[in-house]
């Protein structure tokens, strides 16, 4: 049973089978050398220590081999991206031919919509969640305009019921039932960045498929955070970044999933580049594009090796731990934070994030009644790195790979002091 004593946190840390992984990361230090309570892994994951060696290997091979590194580096650069495919595929529940690491998130979203948003005069709408991450809104709006439609008419936003903050799955399915015939593409976040709600992707996909809609998900806040089975769920495509829960470093290289059933679709339009061209004839430099089958066929450029090396280092930790063990700790650690927040004797704190552990990842979005930014600034001064969203929401993500129960305990203590004194 959970309790509010510091001993409970210490005991849970001792028993934690993943506890040694905290030492695999650099935790930013305060001026007195104590580690910050870092809860921003949903925004920028911390640096795995082993990234340095992985990147240095590539710098060294470049230094010593120059262009020969493409074939003779310790890990030759020509096929380097493929070193990451299996590890990435197992995190999102895809087959290896369905997954490729390339570009950055918004770029991949555009590339996927070029191929999979195929509006017709009868079916041209895109269904997305209300207040999606701005980049997704801009990408979707611009795609709609690119095809000559008016975003006002072509984008259907899923809006929570009056007085509610979360979307109900039943309402999403109902919208699909009613408007599915007009919807060309369902394009939603996997986990909403603001509320932390993990949408029921399997049910949504199933219903959308019944209505013959194409389905794509932005998994920026889902990948490395929640269980995913993109292949089994029959999702058409998905995109994600790697610098949040996947800890690949600022602006790290992103990921993309294309379902197997599209692997040889040469009827789909796509924006092409030489790295998507059939490998065996790529260097004949011929004028006609013959795509590789599978997700790799959407590659444009030869990929940046240094960011790939960084992500490869980070993914090796995920491979070692495995998503099931990670999610097990994640659910318990987040439930512990939820428990401590509820124990705070105040009516000022409420949680926006779903209480059902299968409908959230590790992030909790905390609403603080009558909060102002000074409350947030004070907890920052006391060593908490979290995220403030106007007008009154603090987002915190206890990340199972490097956050401890003690981190969570101390955060709850600090928040408690502040909500009781600050007004
Ligand atoms: C973080 C995030 C982005 C950021 O896009 P970049 O192309 O990586 O800058 C986009 N969409 C969502 C949903 C995000 O959470």
UniProtKB/TrEMBL annotation:
Pathway info: Cofactor biosynthesis; NAD(+) biosynthesis; quinolinate from L-kynurenine: step 2/3; Amino-acid degradation; L-kynurenine degradation; L-alanine and anthranilate from L-kynurenine: step 1/1
N6-(pyridoxal phosphate)lysine modifications at: 244
Any coiled-coil regions, as ranges: none
Annotated residues for binding of pyridoxal 5'-phosphate: 105-106, 133-136, 218, 221, 243, 274, 302
Self-association and partners: Homodimer.
Free-text function comment from the UniProt entry: Catalyzes the cleavage of L-kynurenine (L-Kyn) and L-3-hydroxykynurenine (L-3OHKyn) into anthranilic acid (AA) and 3-hydroxyanthranilic acid (3-OHAA), respectively.
Protein name per UniProt: Kynureninase
